[in-house]
Design brief:
mainly alpha; 8 helices; 237 residues; elongated
């Protein structure tokens, strides 16, 4: 009965599209950026624990957890998935939520999923030290200073701005950008010179990602790195 219930809960989240990365450095990666005095409210949960989930579940795919009401209504299903590391889905996916992110979700649920709160992060043992509180926040490395390889393009450009559609379960499965071998099947869209490639042109014209997706357009720096990667032969490593 317990397994059947979990399967049913999982089905409610089918359809999310994530891209895989071994080196994602996000707000939820336990980099010491939390403060012990931060209150546990929806704003924290949204930006810290649910940040990766919102790539899909912000209205385009059910359930919509971008609002306090939506996340509150789905909290039981959310916990059922994150506790067994099936959300975000590793098959296409981000790193799993860390212990601090999960503990904050549970505490928020225990508090009654409040939009405001007086309970602070300091009350969560899992968020101490490397799990969240304390230490020096990891520096943000500009994409131009990162290795010119597929992993950088994936984690900094494709994952946040393209793979929601361009994946096996996305809205454009005929043009997939993950994994690398699948991207290369459509190498004609990444043909050198970079500034003449299809991917660069649609990105520069801001037709991709489409405005209707709610995703931000590629920055000038991202476009520059993208063209350099294409001109370098689209190295995987």
């Amino acid at each position: 009965m317990k397994n059947t219930t979990l399967i049913l809960l999982c089905l409610l989240f089918v359809g999310c599209n994530y891209s895989k990365s071994k080196s994602i450095a996000s707000i939820g990666s336990g980099n010491g950026s939390l403060s012990g005095t931060t209150v546990i409210d929806f704003a924290l949960i949204k930006s810290y624990s649910l940040s990766t989930c919102l790539n899909c579940h912000s209205g385009s795919q059910a359930p919509d957890i971008s609002t306090a009401a939506g996340a509150s209504a789905s909290i039981v299903r959310i916990l059922a998935r994150v506790d067994v590391d099936t959300m975000p889905p590793a098959s296409g996916g981000y790193q799993m939520l860390n212990a601090c992110q999960k503990a904050l979700l549970h505490k928020w649920s225990d508090l009654g999923t409040p939009t405001t709160s007086t309970t602070t992060v300091a009350s969560i043992p899992e968020c101490a030290g490397a799990g969240g509180i304390g230490g020096t926040p990891a520096p943000v490395i500009p994409i131009s200073q990162m290795p010119l390889n597929y992993d950088t393009i994936l984690t900094k450009i494709l994952q946040p701005k393209c793979i929601t559609c361009h994946s096996a379960t996305g809205t454009m499965p005929d043009i997939q950008f993950f994994p690398y071998t699948t991207l290369m099947l459509k190498s004609s869209k990444w043909s050198a010179p970079g500034t003449s490639s299809t991917v660069y042109q649609v990105s520069k014209q801001k037709s991709m990602p489409p405005a209707s997706s709610g995703l931000s357009a590629l920055t000038t720096e991202e476009l520059t790195v993208l063209t350099k990667w294409i001109d370098a032969g689209k190295p995987e490593l």
